[in-house]
Write a structure and sequence with these properties.
Elements: H1 3-10, H2 14-26, E1 30-35, E2 38-43, H3 50-62, H4 64-71, E3 78-84, H5 86-89, E4 98-104, H6 109-123, E5 127-132, H7 134-142, H8 146-153, E6 157-160, H9 163-167
Parallel strand pairs: 4-5
Antiparallel strand pairs: 1-2, 3-4, 3-6
Helix pairs in contact: 4-6
Length: 170
């Protein structure tokens, strides 16, 4: 990001943003990349806490918020929605897709996919949706289905519902 972009995005004063950028650079959280007569700022992937911060950002606002917002119009029919797989585990790569499980009634793939398409465009990743009715989820949980068991044993980023809702079907 350029300084002006960050000032606009932060909706804060020039001095405050510049002071914060200086602190971030001095702590090695951010690196400065000269671009002609301007400076570009980016996260320092070599920083010892980069992975933890990256995970925190993704879990809080990076992916969770736009997906949750996209599902909001149909949230009354969703018992649970969560991200699982490489992103939830923190082992994703630049080209990794977003594995999204949605458990709910009266939902159709075309409508869900249409709601998520703008998010895919914004985050630059494909969203792979698994849509299950609650009865199917319960059946697969109780029969110890390998796919559902694997999901249950992995990290999840809960978007709608809670871990208790997912676990309560056991």
């Amino acid at each position: 990001f350029q300084g002006a972009e960050l000032i606009r995005l932060a909706a804060s004063g020039v001095g405050a943003v510049q002071r914060e950028l200086k602190r971030l650079v001095s702590s090695d959280l951010v690196v400065v990349i000269p671009a002609g007569r301007q400076k570009r700022y980016q996260a320092n992937r070599n920083c010892p806490v980069f992975d933890e911060l990256h995970g925190l950002v993704i879990k809080t606002v990076g992916l969770a918020l736009p997906i949750t917002n996209a599902l909001e119009p149909m949230s009354d029919r969703i018992l649970s929605a969560f991200i699982y797989g490489s992103i939830a585990k923190g082992s994703d790569r630049a080209g990794s897709d977003i594995d999204l499980m949605i458990i709910g009634d009266d939902l159709s793939y075309p409508k869900v996919l249409a709601a998520l398409q703008p998010v895919e465009n914004v985050v630059g990743r494909q969203i792979s949706v698994n849509l299950m009715k609650p009865a199917e989820w319960i059946r697969r949980m109780t029969s110890e289905d390998s796919f559902v068991s694997r999901i249950m044993s992995q990290q999840k980023i809960i978007l709608i519902g809670s871990e208790d809702v997912i676990e309560s079907t056991r």
